[in-house]
Each structure stands twice: as structure tokens, then as C-alpha cells.
Amino acid sequence: MYAIGVDLGGTKTAAGVVSGDGEVLFSGTIPTLSRDGSAAILDATAGLVAGLRDKAADAGIAVGRVGVGSAGVIDAAHGVVVSATDAISGWAGTALTAGLAARLGLPASSVLAVNDVHAHALGEAWTGAAAGTSSSLLVAFGTGVGGSFVLDGKPVLGHRYAGGHVGHFASPYACFDGTPLPCVCGGAGHVEAIASGPAILESYRRLGGSSPVADTRAVFALADSGDGVAAGVIGMAAAAAGQAVGGLANILDPEVVLISGGLADAGERWWQPMETALRAELLPALTGIPVRPAALGNTAAVVGAARLVLETAVSAPAGYSSAQTSRRN
């Protein structure tokens, strides 16, 4: 049994042919046409998928199902983008699964979609750092802050499919001169406003860093060269991240915690204060909880997206957490 998993982000779209045991056999990547409108994005994504389907067919492999992990809040029951940031122009309201199915000549039931971080977490729960566990909490720290709680092999999507927005609750670190820091969601004082990659860059500038910096990588480089302000803002962002994840672990009590994203890959300068703050936040019952880096890297969301439809192919399509169909807002 095989499926194609798609990881559709604001910058690039990756896809792969995935086997029933989670192996990526063929893969490809294209730029996301994020300023060209939803129809252009669907056309390009369908072209990527069709090419992989043809490549699989040449190898004697039939693929008739497609799973998608997409940026935005995704109504998984209907395959529609409920809302999205302006990283992809006009993405909100897109009939994602119906549009892809029509372009690929597949039945509508053969294409499923969830948010990309849920797909990422599902991939890790299937064959990655949380494989074999009954529950896992994944939190990704990068351009933004997002997460997913996977329970019994299914991501918990929430009543309105907005579950996983773990960057958007209050952090005591997200404040400057007594004023909550603005967040990209329109709120203020949130985790993402202090713990994301762009927030580190803004903190360095706000706190009077003496060197010109173009991006977050430059802040890390300055810290490594002895810049005290750079080291301080990285430590503050890491502590905010750890405190937030520790609080979430107290609420959800997952079997394992996974940390992902560009900051998780930045090394001990970020990881050590993050984990210290995380463990300081934990209730005594959670003291020994495993905290691991995610393992699958860029393939995680592709594998997780494929898992959506591979699992549906062998079990009743009963949603991904609690009932995901026939619900009222």
C-alpha cells in the first residue's frame, strides 16, 4: 500500500511517495507560488503529485491516495482552508482537497488534509522520535511557534480545527518596559512574540545590540563570538519556549515531548536553557518525561500526510481525534 504525502508551506511544497511502513521512495520539491493565488498553487501541487505518481507507476507501484499537510487552519472533514496568514495570498477559503482531487482525477475521498504541524507530528509519531508511544506533544520553534498533540496515533485537531496554536497564549517573558509585545496574530504578550526565530532578531535590536544583524542566524553567530546581548536574548527566548512547553506538558501529560523547528536545530546554546526551563515548570509527576529532538527532519510532514490516507485505507475514516464530521461552531 502506498500514498503520496504533500507538505505545502509558504515557501516550498515537498511531496513524496510513501510506503505502508513509512519509507519515502520518491520525492520532489517545488517553490510554492505564494503570491499567485490558490488556483496556481493547486495546479503546481497537482503537477508535482502527478509527476511522482507517474514515477511510481514506472516502478510498478500504483498510488491512488494523497494526504496533505498545509499551512493554515484546515477543516479536515471538508478539506477547506478555514484561515491562513498572508504568507500565502488568498489561501483562506480554498477547497484544498476537492481542488487537488479534481486536478488529479481522483475521488474526493482519496485526498485528505490537515495543518502542516499536525502532519509533522503524525509523521514523528509513526516512524520518528515518538514511534511506539501512545501520546506525544510536538512543539516547533522556527519562523513561528506551532504544535500538535497526537493521541493514539491521531492528532487532536480541536472543535474548530484550530488546535495546535501553542504560540498564542500568554508568556511572562513577552513584555518590554511593562508593555506586552505585539504578536503576529494581532494579540500581544504571546509565546510566539518572544520565542520564535524572528522574535530573537527583534529582541536583539530592541535591547540595543551593537552590531547590525540581518537575520536570526546572525544573532546566534554574534553570541558565539562573545556578544552578551545576543547571548542574552537567545537565552531569554529559549527559556520562554521551555516554560511554555513545560506548561503544556502539565496540561496534556504526553508520554513524550518532541521539540522541532529551526531553533531546535541551533545547538546547545538554545537547547540547554530551553530544556532547563521546561523541566523547572513540570509537576512532580512529570519529572522524568522524555524530551527529544524530532528525528525525521524535512520528511516528517510528508510522511505524516501520507499516514492520513494510508490509515484511512485500512480503517474506518472516523476522523483524527474526536468526531470531526457533522459539528456545529
Overall description:
By secondary structure, the chain is α/β, with parallel strands linked by helices. The chain has nine helices and 14 strands. A hairpin with a 2-residue loop joins strand 9 (145-151) and strand 10. Helix 3 packs across helix 9, helix 6 (216-224) crosses helix 7 and helix 7 runs parallel beside helix 8. The chain is globular and about 60 Å long. The model is unreliable at 314-329 (pLDDT under 50).
User: Strands across the major sheet, in which order?
Assistant: 3-2-1-4-7
Poorly predicted regions? 314-329
Work out the number of β strands.
Answer: 14
Q: What proportion of the residues is helical, as a percent range?
A: 25-40%
User: Helix and strand succession?
Assistant: EEEHEEEHEHEEEEEHHHHEHEH
Mean pLDDT: 93
Measure the end-to-end span.
36 Å
Outline of the structure:
With 329 residues, the chain is α/β, with parallel strands linked by helices. The protein has helices spanning 38-58, 96-104, 116-127, 192-195, 197-206, 216-224, 228-252, 268-281, 300-314, and strands at residues 2-8, 12-19, 24-31, 66-70, 73-75, 80-83, 111-115, 135-141, 145-151, 154-155, 175-176, 179-180, 256-260, 291-293.
